[in-house]
Amino acid sequence: MRTVLMMGAAVVALLPLTAQAEAPVVTKQVYQLHQKLITLDSHLDTPASLDLPGWSIEEEHGVHSDFTQVDLPRMKKGGLDGGFWAIYTGQGPLTIEGFRKARDFAILRGLSIRNMVAADPANFTLALEAKDAAPIAASGKRIVYMSIENAYPLGEDVSLIKTFYDMGVRVSGFAHFAHNQFADSSTDPSKKPRYGGLSPLGKELLKEMNRLGIVPDASHSSDQVLDDLLALSTTPVLLTHSGCKAVYNHPRNIDDEHLKALAAKGGVIQMNAYGTYLRASKPNPERQKALMALYGQMREDAKLSPEKRAELLAQRQEIDKLYPDTDRPTFDDFMAHMLHALKVVGPEHVGIGLDWDGGGGVVGMEDVVDLPKITAALLKAGYTQADLEKIWSGNVLRVLAAAEAGKGK
Fold it and tell me: Which of 118, 229, 258, 334 lies 20 to 30 Å from 320 when distance is taken between CA atoms?
């Protein structure tokens, strides 16, 4: 998901300068345990950073300077072994021209991920199967699975998903912030369903995904889409970055009934740290007006010079100073969703998908350096190392392995 400023290939995340909230103390023992785990995040929007002018994944950046949240040095500090690097494409018009532009953009974004791996084989390795994760992590390299957020770029040609599969994509969502040709969105501005779930074309896409071994992702799609996926998919369904309606009743979250249905079919919910979906916050109209004015200067497909990016970053930092967000959700708000999901479906059906570089991050957990705090909090709540192994990677890899085993059936 994105609550970021898309400046051509550039991104400025919505993270204000703010003090850290209370969060669990990470002892040396906890940190060492965290570093031993295979840790995967199922929704990294970091590929958008790869196309920023002058930005390098190899260098350490600052969440309060350039607003990015993931790079190689910070992954090492935070013990993040890797995850699913998303090809995100914003929703555009359902026209031939719109589909063409989105297709080209998505292919180039996918190539940016592949180029990152090719440029530094000492630190990154492309993963294509569930069994690839462990040896890559053991080698000290970062794990790069690929995913699609929003199937809109496929246009009306379901067979195009094979091109992305061949590129390395192993997880794909259907819709994003608005209804598209495949499925209803949970947040369409109309607040009305278009299909009441998957469209006929969306059902054909699901069949092709099952045939290829691509995991269906229901995040961003409506509850009725999740119902269709659970009824029709021949393999388990993933929610790559979602939360719990029982904690905060927002359309992007799912209720306990759907959580249980997801788990009953072997699926997993990967917990989101996107503040707007964790709890309600006090309105800040001056800040929103200033941010909207900043957004108005950009287009997703626009080219951005280093000078223009610096100017926009400065404007963003000025907005944070003039109109600070004093009611941001905290680490405790995030943990409330995670602990609720664990209570409802257990550690076999919960994982991590924090939406880094796409709007994720809360007070007390601002970037990937803070990830050991999750391990500390789960241990404090009574979960075991075996539970942590499932939550941090075992569950999502199990779902991926099931998709592989179901190929061609």
Answer: 334
